[in-house]
Amino acid sequence: MVFFNLPLPSAIPPSTVTQTQAVPYITQQYRQRRQESERTGTFKRKYERKTDVILCKKCLRERKPPSHLQYFGNWYCEESETQTYVEWRTGLEKLGFGKKKPGNDNPPAS
Ligand SMILES: [Zn+2]
């Protein structure tokens, strides 16, 4: 079956005019600046500075993989944890992390 009356999004040719209209002016400016700096090689990532490094509370080292793994908001610290990651994660699963609580998805109808 073919629906001739339905205008498919793919049928509309991509136009730079409609694209720029949909994007806010500030975003346009940002994209333009970023493209320029990417071209010239001066693009800097804002969040990769030393001051933004998150330290692990357990080992006081930089909290990043592979020695630090996150599981549903909990951080596994390889440096100070006695369990393996799998054991640690299993323990969290027993506490209810990573599981949907039964009944939450289907509230009683009446
Ligand atoms: Zn740590």
List the main descriptive attributes of the protein structure presented here.
about 110 residues; two-stranded antiparallel ribbon; about 30% helix
Spatial strand sequence of the major β-sheet: 1-2
Structural class based on helices, strands and sheet pairing = mainly alpha
The stretches of 5 or more residues where confidence is low (pLDDT under 50) are: none
Kindly, what is the distance between the CA atoms of the first and last residues, rounded to a whole number of angstroms? 41 Å
Bound molecules: zinc ion
Helix content: 25-40%
Instruction: Note the beta-strand portion.
Output: 5-15%
Mean pLDDT: 79
H-E order: HHEEH
The general outline is: flat
Number of strands: 2
Number of helical regions: 3
* Cα radius of gyration in angstroms: 25 Å
Main sheet, how many strands, which sense, barrel? 2 strands, antiparallel
What does this structure look like?
The two termini are 41 Å apart. Among the domains are: 11-39; 53-94, no CATH class. The chain is mostly helical and 110 residues long. It has helices at 16-22, 25-40, 85-94; strands at 68-71, 74-77. It has a two-stranded antiparallel sheet with strand order 1-2. The relative contact order is 0.06. The protein has three helices and two strands, in the order H-H-E-E-H. 30% of the residues lie in helices and 7% in strands. Zinc ion is lined by residues 56, 58-59, 61, 63, 68, 77, 79-80.
Topology:
Blueprint: H1 16-22, H2 25-40, E1 68-71, E2 74-77, H3 85-94
Antiparallel strand pairs: 1-2
The chain binds zinc ion.
Zinc ion (ZN) binds next to loops.
